[in-house]
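User: Please predict structures.

Assistant: First:
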Amino acid sequence: MESLNDGEFSFSHETIQRDFELLTKALDASMSGIVITDNQQPDNPIIYCNDAFERISGYVRREIIGRNCRFLQQEDRNQPEREIIRKALQKNENCYVEIRNYRKNGTLFWNELYLSAIKDNEGKTIYFIGVQNDISRRKKAELELRQQKDQMERQVQERTRTLKINEEYLSSIVQTVRESLIVLDPDSHVLSVNEHFLRTFKVTRAETEDRLLFELGDGQWNIPQLRELLEKILPTNNPVEDFEVEYDFPHIGKKLMLLNAHRIELEGEYKDRILIAIEDITERRSIEKRKDDFLSIASHELKTPLTTIKGYVQMMNKLMPENSNLRFKDLVGKTESYVNRLNNLITELLDVSKIQTGYIELHKENFDFNKMVYDAVEGIQAGTKTHHITIKGKATDSYLGDETQLVQVINNLLANAIKYSPNANEILVYLSLVSDYLKVSVTDYGMGISSEDQKKVFERFYRVGDIQQRFPGMGIGLYVCDQIVQRHGGSLWIESEKDKGSTFSFTLPLKERADA
């Protein structure tokens, strides 16, 4: 309730809460993308984004919170507008730029950005608010207007001839490509198919073209998932990528297919066509399953005798006489070291096996996240004399998650930071809260990773080429870390430059979210 007291208004908690919810709804209803960054934290992390920002950028909220806005430029870093933004942030000033950004799927869009500083009563800038609009269409129109009209007329005849050549060339490519292709009209009638489709599904062109797709082969293409794709998804004008369909065909057996579909809008006779590419991944998926099964069985079979060997080595250490030969002691010590290393490798393989088969489970309990990180750093620090690990900031003393698995993530990131920075001696761990997420960053000043390799470092068994030759390993540690973070509803990413070091960061939601 509101009350009058000595000429001043006092607002209840309910009123403030109602106004806050109204403001949030208003921001989410905006057609413009809106973000708020915290100027009081290092690197100005994003602490709020509205629904429109998610739609425009293609990222979901958990992939946005905690990052600096520059991640939208990806590798396009030499834009002069970036310097304008940087100077505005340094001087705590407002600015306006038109800058090239990239969605999560890599597509370019032009961003009209208004950046405003939010200051406290003392004039100190504590936040920045950014309002963005997608002006790609306007930019495209401006580019088209720059073209000279008189050149178009002189090129009509040449383009007509080139178009005919290209049409014939394209037709030959379509017919020889090792992927089944279908072209449909808006009513799902088959206009054309390529030779690969005819061979794969054992039909003739006469049995296929000019017929309704769902009636082909006495209804064998009347697949519910395919109907959903054509009748519900494609009409939204969104392309369909890697849509998985499994179906048991009467004549050729069970097939696992990966479908990519696009609605093509052209002028004239060929207006509105649907292109579907079908990749038969039945054999590939079968090979992957056999490989995962082998990995699981081999890891378990190796674990049992290795545990026995490890026990024998430990027993040798305990029973070894004090006056034993130094050479013998050294050999036993090296044996124990290699057994432990092999045990760690097999443990990682078992983790991968559990992830692939879906057997990895989260045992969530409330624990002190700050203490967990400090204890993990203390353990790693005790085992290294070459690097000094510094911790700054705090996250939370109460987090609901699987402490054992998150310790594994911290240990792996720290071990990598030490391993891949042999010529540096400092590692920084930074803890913070950004919006309703906790954030952990591990920074080293070592070898760094190229932009091309950064896209693949979280893939299973991937190892960077030059690192692979210098350092041993199987390339599964970061894959396991990424899976653990994802299963907690978080996001793990890297920022790095060659020869300047790397920062691995991850965020975890402080409460369960529907989009996690």
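Second:
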Amino acid sequence: MSIQAILETKVKEAVAAIFEIELPSVEFQPTRKDFEGDVTIVVFPMLRFVKGNPVQIGEQIGAYLEKEVAEVTGFNVIKGFLNLVIADAYYLDFFNGIKANDSYGFVSQKENDAIMVEYSSPNTNKPLHLGHIRNNLLGYSVAEILKASGKKVYKTQIINDRGIHICKSMLAWQRFGNGETPESTGLKGDKLVGNYYVAFDKAYKAEIAEMVAAGTDKKVAEKEAPILLEAQEMLQKWEAGDEEVVSLWKEMNGWVYKGFDVTYKNLGVDFDTLYYESNTYLLGKDVVAGGLEKGIFFKKEDGSVWIDLTDDGLDEKIVLRSDGTAVYMTQDIGTAIQRVKDYPDVGGMVYTVGNEQDYHFKVLFLILKKLGFSWSENLHHLSYGMVDLPSGKMKSREGTVVDADDLMNDMTRTAAQISEDLGKLEGYSDEEKNALYKLIGLGALKYFILKVDPKKRILFDPEESVDFQGNTGPFIQYTYARIQSILRKADFDTTADVIVNALHDKEKELIKQLQLYPEVIQLAAENYSPALIANYTYDLVKEFNSFYQQVSILGETDEQKRLLRVQLSQKVSEVVASAFKLLGIDVPERM
């Protein structure tokens, strides 16, 4: 049982005994570093129930706890804060209970409590870019955190493989490609197709300029440029099942999928199941028809179908065009329903999509709720801010995006340069160095992005992220490697039972930090926030480094103290590795 659970029972007992009042809850917080104590009880909230001076109330409760609770060995009251000193024996018992637990902090999976997490969801007309990196890292990490919290998780994406934007790349390849392929050019397939998306935009703008020069109004030219009309015709042929167009679509999408697979592997993310818009874009129309009969939707004079959400603080939203074709909302309604049909144990979904779609998901979730689906209560939009570089905003069709593969390679080169300048890798073979550069570079990238609350916009600075000091991935990786070095030098049985009567203050602080890990996992799962895991890990590593600097580990002459400190070091490294795994980050054995 946690110390807070023990104390909550006893504080309520104390208030009942002293003041004859039933206290509904007790508020705790860590004791400030400048005061003696380990756990602080906040007295002020009790004043709604217990009348009197908060200092005197705290003194009376503290005296009761010191007498009645074996774990409490002392107390002091500062204004309305009751600081309790907890016995070393409690922390030693706790540590002995977790040190051999390989899955410490994790909760066993509940089979009937599944959740589906969607992330990535790229278009097949261009390679993944920096924005996709944040999306993938967030979605993958949230899925892993939810698993650790006890959820069964399905990781999925919906691939946007149809539409006018796909036809633009296809048409440009037909016009300008001269039959080139990924094999003939040596380019990844997604990059090759992305080049033709850019080529289309250049040709389109050139045609507009030519039409305007000939006297056509610019807005008319933008709608009637021949290359755009041809792309629209190609889309109509695709929807009609034209054999030639469909064959080209399959071939070019195939190139892109192979390219995506390489990027996903290098980024360290994966999926359990895939959905394709080409299979889902007609879903939802039957649901709209059913909702129309029930009065959930209504039809306007032009035949279009809408839902009125003004009573819910939103507006009217179209769900079917007047010609009977679906809009994105229709597809998303149908796809959500289809996913639950495919995976009946799914009781909720998480959509990892940028914050420009906040309103869309409010509407989607509300519509599904009005349609009567019980799982609609457990839908969450993992909304995130954009990622910027010092060079500014990115535009796919103009070819100014920061390519995901290029960024990962740049991070590896940056890690190599900084590591060489610091002279940290003497005695490493070239192969070992290259593997470590990649591990450090990717760790720096992932940590820099994940340590920030998802809702906040990020200005990503590659060099700042590969700093070996401060709140960075490499700093944490370096501490992990330092601990591995200590463990390699420990030439005695490190698994033996420890017999110690008292703890050094730094030992106690480290155990208290370890104690927080299970709670942090649950909070991160509840808030869909990898940032809580990342910053907890940094705090743990800071606490370890303070411990490392102020107490001797292998140089300690007392065998039992030495054994405890090695075991503490090992547990810290295990929790660091465990937390970083939830973030999708690897840790090095040497560095």
